[in-house]
Amino acid sequence: MTEGNFVDYVKIYVSSGKGGKGSTHLHREKFIEKGGPDGGDGGRGGHVYLVGNKGLWTLFHLKFARHIKAGNGGDGSGDRSTGADGDDKYIEVPLGTVVKDKETGEILFEITDEGEKQILSRGGKGGLGNWHFRSSTNQTPRYSQPGLPGAEMDVILELKVLADVGLVGFPNAGKSTLLSVLTSAKPKIADYPFTTLKPNLGIVAYRDFQSFVIADIPGIIEGAAEGKGLGHYFLRHIERNSTLLFLVPVDTPDIKGEYDILVNELTKYNPEMLDKERMVVISKCDMLDDELKAELKTELDISFKDVPYMFISSVAQQGLTELKDKLWKMLNE
Ligand SMILES: Nc1nc2c(ncn2[C@@H]2O[C@H](COP(=O)(O)OP(=O)(O)OP(=O)(O)O)[C@@H](O)[C@H]2O)c(=O)[nH]1
Ligand SMILES: [Mg+2]
């Protein structure tokens, strides 16, 4: 995935197909002088459907799909033949996609299950052919119904649950590096603050074909709530995550102090952020030898009494399996 693949909101315009015309046809055959009406019905216009796909995690694939249009129904014809139905369109969306009418803001429905199919825009009905209108008083009706028009609408698709785990940390803490070693995402990594400007998502493949999603967001600094750094508006991307992973580099002079600043900024953004499961990861621990690590551990055991913490190194690949195991446990508790 590339920089900024985190799309949880798209506007699209959909239109279903119009129904085909019913046919006004009179039967003709050699030696039969007066054939009856035999005009067939028009086919129905194509529907536009939304379909749940658990392999999708964002609405990124729809970012540039401005107009999605289903096919028109075919016209009916003689010999009572019905026109073909218009081609249906299937829009695949991640589970947790909420559909709203753009005009009214009304929630239309939500896709929550794999393979769940709902009609977003219904195709117009095909018209009836003249065959239907024959009667005792009119043996040869010369009229039929036109097809009904399709429906057009602007809709908003919004994703409720984007990622399971959100990474929180100061700039340069190693968030993007961690994402790159846990997932196949390739975010930009560099030795300067604010390398990440837009959120990135990655999928962690876990044992037995399970998976969960991690979101890497820009770094947060003290005063973010007042607009310092990149501000904190992008916290909305992790607002709905169930678990927050706080990253503090091992060479930070006051590890607990930095963690407290992060927690404080999150609280200022939305106090409910603190209701989530939390874990602290001390990153870049390859910079520390075992002796120093043991010393630090004694200190941190006291500072982090109420929240679990662990050491990792993305570069030296230390603690990564343990981290995945712990996250998986937290997510499934
Ligand atoms: N020694 C060491 N360096 C690391 C480790 N992880 C990341 N780094 C380095 O730390 C620097 C910052 O890494 P990033 O992953 O870009 O940090 P970030 O938290 O995403 O930074 P922003 O996007 O600016 O918020 C880079 O130079 C990385 O190479 C690690 O495990 N060990
Ligand atoms: Mg980054």
UniProtKB/TrEMBL annotation:
Select a single GO molecular function from the record's annotations and give it.
ribosome binding
**Biological process, per Gene Ontology:** ribosome biogenesis
Task: Name the Pfam families on file.
Answer: GTP1_OBG, MMR_HSR1
Q: Residues that bind Mg(2+), according to the entry?
A: 176, 196
The protein's required cofactor(s) are namely:
Mg(2+)
The record's subcellular location field reads: Cytoplasm
Obg domain boundaries: 4-162
Keyword line: Cytoplasm, GTP-binding, Hydrolase, Magnesium, Metal-binding, Nucleotide-binding
Q: Which Gene Ontology cellular component annotation is one that this UniProt entry carries?
A: cytoplasm
Give its E.C. classification number. 3.6.5.-
Q: Which residues form the OBG-type G domain?
A: 163-332
Cross-referenced PROSITE patterns, in alphabetical order?
G_OBG (PS51710), GTP1_OBG (PS00905), OBG (PS51883)
Q: What InterPro entries does this protein map onto?
A: G_OBG, GTP-bd, GTP-bd_Obg/CgtA, GTP1-OBG_CS, GTP1_OBG_dom, GTP1_OBG_dom_sf, OBG_GTPase, P-loop_NTPase
Spell out the subunit comment: Monomer.
Could you say which protein family the record assigns here? Answer: Belongs to the TRAFAC class OBG-HflX-like GTPase superfamily. OBG GTPase family.
Q: What is this protein called?
A: GTPase Obg
Source organism per entry reads: Flavobacterium micromati
